[in-house]
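Support request from a user on the community tier.

User writes: "When I paste my structure tokens into the form, the page sometimes reloads and wipes my input. The last time it worked, I copied everything first. Here is what I submitted, just in case something in the input itself triggers the reload:"
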């Protein structure tokens, strides 16, 4: 792999948020990161903002942009990120999300300390109206087959409709 991490950002009609999202990704203290952005055919000026940032940011050489002719949806875009990522680890970031400058460093620290294939962390969601929700996860290590699936089922099973509303 060429990078330790790929931050994948699919975007569609994100002209109002993509600057902050991309800046938070590019500001990571961790060094070995590829930034793979998928323009899903939004035609609203988002792509121009991404290209401008790539041109002027010192990490611009690590930014790759793939553009779709027309909108195919976020699932297809994420699958394309999975297929084309050059990083050993993959971190998805939505086009209206921001992450702390140390996010990738902290996740990679834990990945290396525990020889993990996957890591995830707690996060804070801030809605447009300013309402904050903290999603906190306890430390857990899954070493047996299907342990992660069992954890996810217990945590999220039967509550999917609540999270989608």
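"...and here is what came back when it finally went through:"
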């Amino acid at each position: 792999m060429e990078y330790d991490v790929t931050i994948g950002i699919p975007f569609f009609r994100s002209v109002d948020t993509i600057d902050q999202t991309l800046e938070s990704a590019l500001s990571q203290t961790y060094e070995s990161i590829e930034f793979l952005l998928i323009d899903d055919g939004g035609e609203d000026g988002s792509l121009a903002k991404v290209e401008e940032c790539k041109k002027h940011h010192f990490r611009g050489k690590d930014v790759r942009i793939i553009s779709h002719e027309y909108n195919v949806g976020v699932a297809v875009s994420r699958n394309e990120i999975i297929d084309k990522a050059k990083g050993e680890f993959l971190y998805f970031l939505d086009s209206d999300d921001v992450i702390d400058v140390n996010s990738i460093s902290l996740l990679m620290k834990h990945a290396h300390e525990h020889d993990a294939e996957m890591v995830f962390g707690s996060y804070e969601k801030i809605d447009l109206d300013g309402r904050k929700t903290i999603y906190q996860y306890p430390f857990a290590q899954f070493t047996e087959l299907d342990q992660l699936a069992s954890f996810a089922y217990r945590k999220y099973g039967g509550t999917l409709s609540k999270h989608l509303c």
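Agent notes: The reload is a front-end session timeout and is unrelated to the input. The domain at 3-117 is CATH 3.90.550.10 (Spore Coat Polysaccharide Biosynthesis Protein SpsA; Chain A). Helices lie at 18-26, 46-56, 74-84, 103-113, 147-156, 160-164. Escalated to web team.
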